[in-house]
Design a protein that fits this description.
Elements (H helix, E strand, L loop, with lengths): L9 E5 L2 E5 L18 H10 L1 E4 L3 E6 L2 E6 L10 E2 L5 E5 L5 E6 L5 E5 L6 E4 L2 E6 L3 E6 L7 E5 L13 E10 L4 E10 L2 E9 L3 E6 L6 E7 L5 E9 L5 E9 L5 E3 L7 E9 L5 E8 L6 E10 L2 E4 L5 E4 L6 E7 L3 E2 L6 E7 L2 E9 L1 E3 L7
Parallel strand pairs: 1-17
Antiparallel strand pairs: 1-2, 3-4, 3-31, 4-5, 6-7, 7-8, 8-9, 10-11, 11-12, 12-13, 14-15, 15-16, 16-17, 18-19, 19-20, 20-21, 22-23, 23-24, 24-25, 24-28, 26-27, 27-29, 29-30
Length: 372
């Protein structure tokens, strides 16, 4: 998964750089207890029926046995809820405290780990990873009791895209496959201006991919079904209040970029992409007029032959792919200020029945078998 753990000393070759895999050392502490392993039957049930949602102050997992919840201060983030590869844990990162909050699907136990990070990705089993400056990939097995530990020391090679007058301002892991973790290194001049330079980090090499046209600020990403391609969403800013949302795919092995059609709207933003097993790409979008106080409208769109099409009959903040004849969606409310985080009412439709589960919901997530 993304970051391969190897016994004993080894070395990772980069283009012009050599990085080393280090042994597990004591890292950030976590308050949690060991959990029994989930059975294959339970894992299949989880993949088919479990999903999670997040508000500004709560992470929740909905399952057949009921809903379990974890309080948190998730703030303005609109990032999707993550799930570990084995489907046992949902997780999200608090924006203010930079703390990883994880919630067990099986028994509802909560763990909180100070990660000093803004993003975390699932890499294998119940293991999640994040970036720690100045150059480490940290990992944590949510099913065990060992603390987080550095798994890989990384020295990033030069980006093939030259700096554009800014300076380096940190990095973060944004997506992972079995073969690579995708890292975004931020170039910034402060305030709203930023550019993202991408790197694909594998077990044997660090591949500097550089910048992707149109995807400068607020980059988010998701893994594709082939294990080496990612879908990217982001914005090219024209001013502090207006930009244009862009979506593209990138192949980590060839650095081939395919740009998807531009999003409609005078000002727009694209974020929280998903790439389903059936090849469908969906992305959350916002659009607004470049005038003071203009409201923004929200919808989730899917790639189509003629551009982009809504995923639902009505605008939604988020929607999961149909699973077991159920539709799970966050229905958008009235247009909001472009500076506010979009939110709505969580609705589940099944067999003609419509149930409202929660309000002020920002994002959704599901185990890999149902997430697309």
């Amino acid at each position: 998964m993304g970051v391969a753990r190897k016994p004993g000393p080894s070395r990772i070759a980069a283009i012009g750089v050599v990085s080393s895999v280090v042994a597990l050392l004591a890292g950030c502490g976590a308050d949690k207890t060991a959990l029994p392993q989930i059975t294959p039957t339970e894992q299949q049930d989880a993949a088919g029926s479990v999903f999670a949602y997040r508000t500004a102050g709560e992470l929740a997992v909905v399952r057949s046995a009921g809903t379990v919840r974890a309080p948190g201060s998730f703030g303005y983030s609109s990032a999707a809820v993550g799930f570990t590869r084995d489907g046992q844990f949902a997780f999200s990162v608090e924006t203010s405290s930079k703390t990883l909050v994880a919630l067990s699907v099986r028994d509802g136990s909560v763990s909180r780990t100070e990660c000093d990070c803004t993003d975390a990705v699932a890499v294998r089993g119940a293991v999640v990873a994040w970036w720690r400056e100045p150059g480490q990939i940290m990992t944590l097995d949510l099913s065990g009791t060992a603390p987080a530990a550095p798994e890989q020391d990384v020295v990033l090679p030069d980006s093939p895209s030259p700096l554009s007058g800014g300076s380096w301002d940190g990095a973060r892991l944004v997506a992972a496959t079995d073969d690579y973790v995708l890292l975004a290194r931020v170039e910034s001049r402060g305030l709203w201006w930023e550019k993202n330079h991408l790197y694909a980090i594998g077990a044997d090499a660090i591949l500097p991919l550089g910048r992707v046209p149109g995807i400068d600020a607020h980059l988010s990403a998701a893994a594709g079904p082939d294990g080496h391609t990612f879908v990217l969403a982001g914005t090219t800013a024209r001013s502090a209040t207006c930009g244009t949302g862009h979506v593209a795919t990138i192949d980590a092995t060839t650095n081939a970029v395919q740009e998807l059609p531009a999003l409609p709207g005078a000002c727009s933003a694209a974020y929280s992409p998903r790439w389903g097993a059936d090849g469908t790409i969906t992305v959350a979008t916002r659009k607004w007029a470049d005038t003071a106080g203009a409201p923004s409208s929200v919808d989730r769109l899917q790639s189509a032959a003629q551009g982009w099409a809504p995923v639902g009959e009505n605008p939604v903040v988020d929607m999961l792919p149909r699973a077991q004849e159920s539709v799970v969606q966050v229905v958008a409310g009235d247009p909001t200020d472009m500076r506010d985080t979009p939110h709505g009412v969580l609705v589940v439709e099944k067999g003609g029945a419509r149930t409202e589960l929660a309000h002020q919901v920002v994002s959704l997530g599901a185990p890999a078998a149902t997430n697309g």
